[in-house]
Amino acid sequence: MCEESKTEIINKIVIIGNGFDLANDLPTSYNDFILWYLKDYLEKAYAKGSIYSDGLISTNSCVSKTNFSVFDLNIFRETLETNFKHGKIDSLFLELILKDVESKNWVDIETLYFKEILGIYKSKSDENRKLQKLNNDLKIITSKLVEYLKTITKTTKIQPLRGITFRDFFGCKNEDEKSFFINFNYTNTVSQYENHVKNSVSIQIHGYLHDDGNNPIIFGYGDDTNEHYKTIENLEENLYMQHFKSFWYSKTDKYEQLLNCLESGKYEVYILGHSCGLSDRVLLKTIFEHNSCNKIHVFHHGKNLEQQKKNHFEKVIQISRHFDDKAKMRKLVSKFNPQYCFN
Fold first, then answer.
1. What digits encode the pLDDT tens for the residues 207-240?
2. How many percent of the chain have pLDDT more than 90?
3. 7 pLDDT band (50/70/90 cuts)?
4. 211, exposed or middle or buried, with CB in 10 Å at 0-12, 13-18, 19+?
5. What distance in Å separates the CA atoms of residue 259 and residue 283, rounded to the nearest whole number?
6. CB of 152 within 8 A of CB of 18?
C-alpha cells in the first residue's frame, strides 16, 4: 500500500511596519513626531523662561508667549524667532530634517542620517567633530521619539484594522505550521491581533518602548550592502559605524530568533505596512533571499482600486532593491490581489 501523502508545511513570516500602526489610527509618522517635538520644545522653553537648550535647539529669555490652537513648521519658526531672544536651531541634522518636511511633507530620518554620514566621509573635513555631533543629535532625536511614542500609545485609542482578519490570513491550518510576526515597530499594537492567531510567535526586532533593559530601541541605518559601506568600514573610525543596525542586533537575541524562524522550514512572506526601504535592507534581504522563502505577498492600501494598484506597484519596486537575483524576485513576488488591502 502507498503511504498517505503528507501536507507540506509552509510557515508564515508576517512583516509588520509603521503603516500598520497608522492604519490603527496611531499618529506614528515621522512628521507627527517632529511637529510634537517642536511644540514640546517651545512649551518647555516657555516654562523655563530663561536660557534653555535640549542639544538641538536653544533659546534665551522669553519675550512673549503664544498659546497654540494650531501648530505647524511655519508657526514654530516664527515663534522661535520672535518670542525668544536668540532662539535658534543648533543642529544641522535637525535643520535638514525640517527642510525635508517642508519640501516633501514627509521625512525618512534614518536614510537622511546615512546621507549625512556619506557627506562627512566625502568632505574629508573635520570628520571627528562632525561625526560626534551627528551621532549625538541622532541619539537625542531617538530619545525624543521614544518619549513621543510612549505618550501616544498611552493616550490614543487603537481602532480596529479595516479590510483584513488576522485569523483568516495568518491562521495556520496545519498544527505543525507557525506564523512568525516580525514587528519592525517599537509599539506592540500587533499583539492585539496576533493573540487571535494560533501557533504564532512575535519578535520585536527593533526593540520595544517599555523594555529598554532587555530589548532596547534600534534606530539608525541598516544597509551594509551600499557601495560606500565597505570603504567607510575600512577607515577604522568607529564613529562612522555607531548607528548601523547590524551592530545593534548583537545587543539582544532577537536577530538570532529571526534566523531560527527562517531555518525552521519553508515559508511565505506577508508584508503589512512596511515600506521596504533601504534603511532595513540588512534584515529584508536576509528574509527575501533565503532559500526557504517560497512567496512574497504584498498588502496594499488606497481609497480606490487605482490607488491600491499604484501602492502595490511601488512596494514591488522597493522590494526589488533587496534582491541581487532579479529573476528570483520576479518569481517570488505575488501579483496584485484585491483581497490584500487594508485601510
1. 999 877 789 999 999 888 888 888 888 888 999 9
2. 76
3. confident
4. middle
5. 10
6. no
Residue 222 and residue 279 in contact, taking contact as beta carbons nearer than 8 Å: yes
Of 310, 339, 69, 33, the C-alpha closest to 185 is 33
Q: Residue 122 contacts by C-beta under 8 Å, 6 or more apart in sequence?
A: none
Distance, in Å, from the CA atom of 303 to the CA atom of 342, rounded to the nearest integer, reads 10
b/e code 116-131 from CB counts within 10 Å (16+ = b): bbeebbeeeeeeeebb
Any idea how long the chain is?
Answer: 343
* Dihedral angle of Cα 312, 318, 320, 322, to the nearest 10 degrees: -140
CA 258 vs. chain centroid, Å, equals 17
Q: How far apart are CA 188 and CA 33, in angstroms?
A: 18
Burial of residue 23, with CB atoms counted within 10 A of its CB: 0-12 exposed, 13-18 middle, 19 or more buried: buried
